[in-house]
C-alpha cells in the first residue's frame, strides 16, 4: 500500500511516496531528479569553486534572503561556464540544492516544505532521517546526512542566526528557524551515537477556532463558552501531555481577546501568533552567553511585564515555582492570565500546581477560573479537548471536599465533548462581573454559537478574518447578527 503527493521546492515539484508494506515502519521517499555522472561531477566542481570564495561571517547573515540571492546569482554564472546548455529544470534544481547545502540545511530543507510533517529528526550521520507524518506517524525517509560535520554545520548555521553558539563547550542548542520552526541540537559525545537535530514544525497557516471545530477538537457550544470567558478576563490554564496541541489551542482562543487591550506574551521560543490588529507585545527569553552573562529568564520577563501596563499576560509554559508564584500573584492583582502546563487531567493539573516542585499555595491556585485539558489519541491520530473544569474555592466545596468541578468531558465512545456538571464558579463570576443572570448568559452564548456556525458554514478560517468577525461582534454584536 502506498500514497503519492507532490511538494514544491524552489519552483520545482518533487514527488513523495509513502509505502506501508516495506518494513516495520512506513517508508517516506522523495523522488529526486536523476543526474548523470557528468552532471554530478560538474556539481561537485561548482561546489568546490564556491567554497573557496564563500566567507560566512559569525553574524549569521548567510540566512538572509539577499545574501542567498547574491550567492545564487554567482553560482548561476559559474554553472553557465561549466555547462552552457543545461536544461532549465535541472539548472534550477542544482542551484537550489547548492544554496541549501552551503547556506541552509541541505536536503532537510525539502522536508521543511512538506506541510504533512510535524517533526524532523536527525539521529546521526548515515542513519536515514525520521519524520513524524500527520497521517502515518513516524516514518523513515530516504534522506541521509553522510558526515557528522554536516550536522554540526547545520546546527551552527541555526545558532549563528540567533546569536548563539553550539560547540564542544556548549553541546546543547535550543533555537528556532526564521520560519518559526523549533530546533533542538545535541553534539557528540553528549549524544554518544552522533550529533542530533530535532525540528518541530509549526503551521505556516495558523490554526483558528474554526479549524478546531471542523476537526472535532471541540464543539461550537464549548467554543462559545471559551470565547465568553476569555473576552471577560477569566484566568485560563491549558494543560495536556507533550504533542497534545496546548500551544496551538492557546493561540486559537487568544483571538477572542478585545482589540483595545494590551497583550504581553512571554515564551522560550516564539510559537504564538495572534491577529495583526491586536495590541500585542511578544517577548522571548534569552540564554546566557559563553561568559555566563546576559541571560533573560521567563521570570525576568514576567516581572518586567507587570510594569508594562498589560491587560492580559500570556505565559508559554509554567515550569518553576517562582514563575508560578509571580503568575498567580498577578492574577490576584487583577491581571487576566492565560498559560500552559504539562498535566494529563484537570485534577493532575491542580495537584502539580500545589505539589513540589511548584508548590503554589492552594489559596493562590483558586485564582484560576477555568482548566482546559488537551488530549491526543495516538492510536486514532486525533487531538481532542479532553476536559473543561473549574477550581472550587474552599467555602464553595461540597461535603466531600471535591476541589475540581468538571464542566465538560470527552466521551471516547461518541467522540464528543459532553456536558458533565453545571458551573459553580466561572459562570457565577461572569454573573457578578457583567450584572447578568444565568439565563441572560445562556442567551448570549447562543448568539455566539450562531456567529461561530456562520464562520463554519462559510469556511471563514483565516486567523485575521476570524479575529475581525469576533472583534466586531464584541464591539457591535447587532452588526454581525444582522450580517448572519
Description of the structure:
The protein is α/β, with parallel strands linked by helices and 484 residues long. The chain has a domain at 209-483: Rossmann fold (3-Layer(aba) Sandwich). Helices cover 37% and strands 23% of the residues. It is built from 16 helices and 18 strands. It has helices at residues 37-53, 65-82, 88-103, 108-112, 148-161, 209-214, 220-231, 246-254, 298-305, 321-332, 346-354, 362-365, 426-434, 438-457, 463-475, 477-483; strands at 2-9, 12-19, 27-31, 117-122, 130-133, 137-141, 172-176, 182-186, 196-200, 236-240, 262-267, 279-284, 312-315, 336-342, 370-377, 382-391, 404-411, 416-419. The strands form 2 sheets. A 9-stranded mixed β-sheet has the order 1-2-3-6-5-4-9-8-7. Strands 12-11-13-14-10-15-16-17-18 form a 9-stranded mixed β-sheet, with helices on both faces. A hairpin with a 7-residue loop joins β2 and β3. The chain starts with a strand and ends with a helix. The model is unreliable at 56-60 (pLDDT under 50).
In brief, what are we looking at here?
The chain has 484 residues and is of the alpha/beta class.
Topology:
Layout: E1 2-9, E2 12-19, E3 27-31, H1 37-53, H2 65-82, H3 88-103, H4 108-112, E4 117-122, E5 130-133, E6 137-141, H5 148-161, E7 172-176, E8 182-186, E9 196-200, H6 209-214, H7 220-231, E10 236-240, H8 246-254, E11 262-267, E12 279-284, H9 298-305, E13 312-315, H10 321-332, E14 336-342, H11 346-354, H12 362-365, E15 370-377, E16 382-391, E17 404-411, E18 416-419, H13 426-434, H14 438-457, H15 463-475, H16 477-483
Parallel strand pairs: 3-6, 10-14, 10-15, 11-12, 11-13, 13-14
Antiparallel strand pairs: 1-2, 2-3, 4-5, 4-9, 5-6, 7-8, 8-9, 15-16, 16-17, 17-18
Amino acid at each position: 500500500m502506498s500514497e503519492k503527493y507532490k511538494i514544491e521546492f524552489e519552483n520545482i515539484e518533487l514527488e513523495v511516496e509513502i509505502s506501508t508494506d516495506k518494513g516495520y515502519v512506513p517508508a517516506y521517499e522523495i523522488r529526486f531528479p536523476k543526474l548523470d555522472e557528468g552532471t554530478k561531477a560538474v556539481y561537485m566542481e561548482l561546489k568546490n569553486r564556491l567554497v573557496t570564495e564563500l566567507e560566512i561571517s559569525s553574524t549569521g547573515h548567510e540566512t538572509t534572503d539577499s545574501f542567498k540571492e547574491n550567492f545564487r546569482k554567482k553560482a548561476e554564472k559559474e554553472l553557465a561556464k561549466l555547462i552552457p546548455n543545461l536544461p532549465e529544470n535541472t539548472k534550477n534544481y542544482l542551484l537550489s540544492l547548492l544554496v541549501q547545502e552551503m547556506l541552509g540545511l541541505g536536503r532537510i530543507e525539502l522536508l521543511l516544505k512538506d506541510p504533512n510533517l510535524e517533526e524532523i529528526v536527525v539521529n546521526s550521520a548515515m542513519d536515514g532521517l525520521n519524520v513524524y507524518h500527520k497521517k502515518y506517524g513516524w516514518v523513515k525517509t530516504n534522506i541521509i546526512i553522510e558526515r557528522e560535520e554536516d550536522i554540526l554545520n547545520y546546527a551552527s548555521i541555526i545558532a549563528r542566526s540567533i546569536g548563539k553558539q553550539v560547540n564542544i563547550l556548549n553541546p546543547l542548542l535550543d533555537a528556532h528557524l526564521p520560519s518559526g520552526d523549533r530546533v533542538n541540537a545535541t553534539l557528540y559525545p553528549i549524544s554518544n551515537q552522533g550529533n542530533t537535530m530535532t525540528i518541530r514544525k509549526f503551521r505556516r497557516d495558523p490554526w483558528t477556532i474554526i479549524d478546531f471545530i471542523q476537526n472535532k477538537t471541540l464543539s461550537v457550544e464549548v467554543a462559545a463558552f471559551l470565547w465568553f470567558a476569555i473576552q471577560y478576563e477569566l484566568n485560563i490554564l491549558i494543560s495536556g501531555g507533550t504533542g497534545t496541541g496546548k500551544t496551538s489551542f492557546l493561540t486559537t482562543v487568544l483571538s477572542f481577546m478585545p482589540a483595545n487591550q494590551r497583550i504581553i506574551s512571554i515564551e522560550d521560543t516564539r510559537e504564538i501568533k495572534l491577529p495583526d490588529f491586536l495590541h500585542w507585545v511578544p517577548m522571548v527569553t534569552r540564554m546566557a552567553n559563553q561568559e555566563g552573562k546576559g541571560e533573560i529568564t521567563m521570570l525576568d520577563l514576567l516581572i518586567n511585564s507587570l510594569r508594562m501596563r498589560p491587560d492580559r499576560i500570556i505565559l508559554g509554559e509554567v515550569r518553576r515555582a517562582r514563575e508560578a508564584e509571580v503568575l498567580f500573584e498577578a492574577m490576584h492583582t487583577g491581571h487576566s492570565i492565560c498559560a500552559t502546563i504539562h498535566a494529563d487531567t484537570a485534577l493532575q493539573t491542580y495537584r502539580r500546581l500545589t505539589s513540589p516542585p511548584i508548590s503554589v499555595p492552594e489559596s493562590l491556585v483558586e485564582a484560576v477560573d477555568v482548566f482546559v485539558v488537551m488530549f491526543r489519541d495516538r492510536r486514532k491520530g486525533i487531538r481532542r479537548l479532553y476536559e473543561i473544569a473549574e477550581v472550587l474555592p474552599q467555602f464553595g466545596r461540597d461535603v466531600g471536599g471535591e476541589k475540581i468541578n468538571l464542566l465538560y468531558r470527552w466521551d471516547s465512545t461518541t467522540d464528543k465533548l459532553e456536558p458533565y456538571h453545571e458551573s459553580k464558579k466561572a459562570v457565577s463570576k461572569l454573573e457578578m462581573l457583567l450584572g447578568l443572570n444565568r439565563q441572560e448568559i445562556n442567551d448570549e452564548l447562543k448568539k455566539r454559537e450562531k456567529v461561530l456556525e456562520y464562520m463554519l458554514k462559510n469556511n471563514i478560517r483565516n486567523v485575521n478574518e476570524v479575529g475581525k468577525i469576533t472583534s466586531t461582534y464584541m464591539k457591535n454584536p447587532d452588526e454581525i447578527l444582522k450580517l448572519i
